[in-house]
Task: inverse folding
């Protein structure tokens, strides 16, 4: 079986999925340890028996709905290549909006030294993206799952990011006495009964990283209420949240005393990130 034949077979197997052709190419490129360009350049290159077996097994997993990021064990985010795990959320492009807003604030305020905390860091995506763009900043990412802490640490090492560290912490529990210029978080924010939990890749992701009470806001409420103890004067608190939660998150921030509260949209024009300053 050649590369082009393998891809044609895989697309047929995955017919009806969201992106059969893209999925097949990403999976095959990973097995061959080559770039996507290689697949176009050498379509008639034959696969060996082991590669065919691995490819068929991976396509079978994808056909059952397992996310490509879990099958290949990696996902690109920002300027990083991150290892993934079924114990953490898969980094998504819309989360880059949260990184952008934190960077905008950092560039406008130019605090030295700059301290940043990422709550519920998962793969470390947000913390590592900020650390890579702000090499003079001190970044800490926390997660209550020790597996996530180990994964984020591995991602820091593989991307040569040296100004970020990761700690096991139930939100602020391991941060007593510390204060930050920026706190960012992509916390669980889906309603426990949401039908979204039974669709697509989300079916395979850990529910503890997805759901947060009846209205999806339990964790955001907790962070908003506790964060003033860990924020410096004028510091930024910024969240990723659901497309229909902008009003609620703004109201939570305003009721707690935050100022300059604003919601920005993601790349699909949905409310996605809300932030405010603690004065």
Result:
């Amino acid at each position: 079986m050649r590369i082009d034949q393998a891809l044609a077979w895989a697309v047929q197997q995955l017919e009806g999925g969201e992106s059969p052709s893209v999925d097949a190419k990403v999976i095959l490129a990973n097995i061959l340890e080559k770039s996507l360009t290689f697949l176009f350049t050498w379509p008639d290159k034959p696969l060996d028996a082991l590669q065919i077996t691995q490819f068929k097994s991976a396509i079978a997993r994808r056909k059952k709905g397992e996310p490509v990021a879990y099958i290949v064990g990696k996902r690109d985010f920002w300027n990083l290549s991150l290892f993934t795990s079924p114990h953490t959320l898969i980094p998504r492009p819309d989360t880059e909006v949260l990184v952008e807003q934190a960077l905008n604030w950092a560039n406008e305020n130019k605090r030295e030294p700059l301290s940043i905390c990422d709550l519920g860091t998962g793969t470390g995506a947000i913390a590592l993206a900020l650390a890579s763009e702000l090499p003079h900043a001190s970044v800490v990412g926390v997660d209550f799952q020790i597996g996530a802490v180990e994964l984020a640490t591995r991602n820091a090492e593989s991307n040569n990011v040296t100004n970020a560290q990761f700690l096991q912490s139930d939100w602020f529990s391991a941060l007593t006495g510390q204060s930050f210029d920026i706190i960012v978080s992509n916390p669980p924010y889906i309603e426990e009964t949401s039908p979204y939990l039974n669709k697509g890749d989300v079916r395979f992701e850990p529910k503890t990283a997805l759901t947060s009470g009846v209205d999806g806001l339990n964790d955001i409420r907790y962070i908003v209420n506790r964060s003033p103890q860990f924020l410096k004067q004028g510091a930024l608190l910024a969240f990723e949240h659901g497309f229909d939660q902008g009003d609620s998150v703004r109201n939570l921030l305003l009721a707690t005393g935050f100022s300059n509260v604003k919601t920005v949209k993601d790349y699909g024009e949905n409310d996605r990130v809300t932030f405010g300053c603690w004065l």
Residues 75-278 form a domain with the Rossmann fold fold (CATH 3.40.50.150). The mean pLDDT is 93.
